[in-house]
Design brief:
With about 230 residues, the protein is mostly helical. The chain is built from nine helices and no strands.
Length: about 230
């Protein structure tokens, strides 16, 4: 509904034509749906990053208490259920890993499959560290502590960047309204001056070019305010 109102406003400002609305409503909704899915995906990935950090800290605590890796995962899974809901992604992943370990699958395979499912750099890095340490007989607790410390530092950097980007996104959203506001002001204040841009081929081409530049600037601004670490 919101995107349709936005398209209606843009059509009124740039074309003032019902035909233009019919032509733009479908691609506009498709673009909005694509952007919405990307934003939801990024939000879920950030949430899982925080959940995974907590899970690794709980796993390190269990290893420090003397549990083997397999049993430490089960203990970490129990602790996660007290912190997150049973339907959360991290709880589902740990339930699956614990179930696979109970089926006597090697812990290395279970961790590697977790990395493939999540497709997150942090998970892949920590999985590689744990698998290598277990195979080579390293100090799992110390290695995991170091890996978690680096992960926490990265999360803090991401938070700082997100705070800065949030303020820039607000400024960007305000700036996006300025061109449309200027056109609306001109239409209301000087309607006869703006009439030449509507209802003729030159006006359609000119306003289409303006809308294209407007759209390109919006896409560029969105990319500049969405930094991935």
């Amino acid at each position: 509904m919101r995107v349709n109102l936005l398209i209606l406003l843009l059509v009124y400002l740039f074309y003032q034509s019902a035909a233009a609305y019919l032509l733009l409503v479908l691609p506009g909704n498709l673009l909005y749906l694509r952007q919405w899915r990307q934003e939801v995906f990024r939000k879920k990935e950030r949430e899982f990053q925080m959940q995974f950090r907590d899970a690794m800290q709980m796993l390190a605590d269990a290893l420090r208490a003397g549990y083997a890796v397999e049993n430490a995962m089960a203990e970490a899974g129990k602790s996660l259920h007290m912190l997150y809901s049973a339907d959360s992604r991290i709880c589902r992943e740990f339930r699956q890993m614990v179930h696979e370990l109970q089926m006597n699958r090697p812990v290395e395979q279970v961790l590697e499959e977790l990395a493939r499912r999540t497709e997150q750099e942090d998970v892949e890095a920590l999985t590689t560290v744990l698998v290598t340490a277990k195979k080579n007989g390293g100090d799992l607790v110390q290695i995991l502590r170091q890996a978690i410390r680096q992960l926490c530092e990265k999360v803090e950097v991401c938070r700082e960047i997100e705070v800065v980007c949030a303020s820039k996104r607000l400024e960007f959203n305000v700036m996006c309204c300025i061109p449309a506001g200027m056109i609306a002001y001109m239409k209301l204040s000087f309607p006869s001056f703006m009439e030449v841009l509507y209802g003729n081929a030159f006006g359609v081409l000119f306003m289409s070019a303006c809308l294209g530049v407007y759209g390109a600037a919006y896409i560029l601004g969105k990319r500049l305010t969405e930094i991935t670490v």
